[in-house]
Fold:
Amino acid sequence: MKICVGLSGGVDSSVAALLLKMQGHDVFGMFMQNWHDADATLHGDCEWEEDRYVAELVARKIGIPFYFVDLSKTYRERVVDYMFREYSAGRTPNPDVLCNREIKFDAFWEAAQKMGADCIATGHYCRKVPLLGADGRQIVRDGIPQSRILQGVDPNKDQSYFLCRLTQEQLSKALFPIGHLTKTEARDIARLADLPSADKKDSQGICFIGKVDLPTFLQQRLQSVTGNVVEVYDAFYAQDPHYIFVRETLASLLRKPGDPRMITEYTSEDAAGQSFNNRRLSDGGGNDFDPDKIAALTDEQLLELSKPVQYGGLRFETETYRSGKHKVMKTRWKENPFGKIIGQHEGAQFYTIGQRKGLNIGGHKESLFVIATDISRNTLYVGEGHDHKGLSRCCVRIKPGDIHWIRPDLAMENGEIRRYRLRIRYRQPLQDATLIQRSNGLYLLFDLPQRGISPGQFAVWYSPDDEMLGSGVL
Structure:
């Protein structure tokens, strides 16, 4: 079988190519250029020329042909433009997810086919296994062999999340040779083979230009406009009708009478190191919802439950007063029990919900976090502390057109309710949740409230045996 490996210059794709070569396959490497420095005034620290050079050295060391393909135009149209559109609308996109669907397993695959490849391989840490029928044979639908995608065995490096929008047709031509390895094992193999990428650091920053500050990059196309930063006080939620509705509705869904958990404790996502077999985080404090009560909710109730709190009703008035020995007339904001204007920012589109860095506002005992952005008013809403009520939500909706099943045979029917484990960002420990399919969308009701949910993020759900089943855009 002739296999094209997407050589990026990193250790993961290098080891993938090496393993396939050792297995006796006809392997060639191809480096894809996704960015031209002339496309912007920025120049990333991790420049593609260096990556290409290392990738070519790896190919020589392994003894495989090496090629180059320029996909920068396609990348700009399908990924970069999408990213700018999302941020300008106040959403938080994930360009890596789109890169896999639109570039690596589409445009890159087309280029590999022209070179005679039967399939392509990447250095993703995930596992692909055949979907077997009752007779033990791989199931084929519409001429496409069906597959299952399992998480990688390394809990700290599983990258299945980034493949959540792939189709069965794309998977049928894809190989993931290192999904059974840990990162340490992959580096050990690379060192043993004396590969030039063995000790190369993992790439960071924006996937196509390297270590460049995201707001700085966005300013290449999105205009900076000064706006207000509003701190929201705890008292706001005691009188907000929507927050009260959410709290009372969640309370009505509990198996036993009581107060629902509305705020989740802060846990660093980098504190992972947890086994995939020990991921039921709702044990010891999560909401225990009754599935029959969930099923009884109307579509309208679910829709309202899934909406975020709105802060546009917060209004601030000014007053004049005399100050100093000469009683000079000055203007100040009137006291508001629900919030306060505490500073200014350079554009609400440059911030995302849950963000802490970049606010540059002092005078608080605890850190400030972005809890909402209002693009139309160019206003940033923030709250103090990890346990601020505005940081957590229990329910979100995925619109019908944004639902994607990697396993189409498992797609949910209207009115159906299932339990799955989900994550809404890469490296987040899996969260227990109830999925409710209705005609107006798929609702995700988490046992534990989730921090920093932002529209535009991808939610990905898994079966108990670590299979990635589907995804949706929040």
